[in-house]
Amino acid sequence: MTTSSAPGKVYLFGEHAVVYGEPAVPCAVERRARVTVEPRDDGRIRVDAADLSLDGFTVTWGGSIDDRPDIDVPAPLVEAAMKYIEAAVRQARDAADAPDAGFDITVESAIPLGAGLGSSAAVVVAGIDAATRALGTELDPEVVARRAYEAEYEVQDGQASRADTFCSAMGGAVRVEGDDTRTIDAPPLPFVVGYDGGAGDTGELVAGVRALREEHAFAADTVETIGDLTREGERLLAEADPAREPSEDLLSELGALMDFNHGLLEALGVSARSLDAMVWAARDAGARGAKLTGAGGGGCTVALDPTDETELALGYTAECEQSFRAELATEGVRVEE
Length: 337
Ligand code: PMV
Description:
The chain is an alpha+beta fold. It is 40% helix and 23% strand. The strands form 3 sheets. It has a 6-stranded mixed beta sheet with strand order 4-3-5-2-1-12. A 4-stranded antiparallel beta sheet has the order 9-10-8-11. It has a two-stranded antiparallel sheet with strand order 6-7. The radius of gyration is 19 Å and the shape is globular.
């Protein structure tokens, strides 16, 4: 039995604009997906994801992934999760040169589904790592990242950036600009996440921004401006000492950029009433800055606050179902004993 885990992430800056070649800075956070894999002799695939959503599901099917029977999935999000697991299995079979390999797969995840915290990337990254190891092949995290990107690309019909998968595989803070992916040094930023209990439809939201950008010059300018402020944020991070707690000045400057970034995302039409309410609750509580994270439409916000105030205030905010502190995860994909 082999278990691998991989972290979720928040976007410090740059979601959506990254789709058009602007840079983005996602940061891995200590909320992990764990995937346990046991090879089977009969070539079948059995997925137990009882922990993946409130309802959970278990399904077994034959050797070909494409033959998966229609199952009575409790929610569209679970159906989506299945597609990611299937794509991860395809990548693992290919990487280990074992096209007929069967697996018992157990997925456990502490990352809300489809909420902007990179749940699908974490499951795909951990899944590819665990399944290849179970077949005796060890892949470098960069290779896991590339294969996980290919899996996401397939499931999302070509609408995926390398941001989530690279960040989850490598851990820490990363920068992604087109095909150029690298890790960057960042101090331990005090992230506080607010979760509205819902999710946004990434494909629909990305398509909405694309249409707006084609129709209105302001939207194309807005995407470029997000790129500019991301570069400004990167400069601030590069000047900071990664081994030290961030200074109050750094937090205020990064926070201001996060506030601008949220306003620009709102202009692109990807925020939501619940996300705005959580962003304002965080700011009112003294957070140095706050924004939505990920595709938007619903899901999560991220704020910077070294004190407990934002987490407490979000706890009293009607639109917020869960709030938690999310430490920067310095480790990306890893084997769990
Ligand atoms: O909501 P998430 O975590 O899947 O992030 C989506 C980020 C986008 O920039 C909107 C799309 C992408 O693939 O980068």
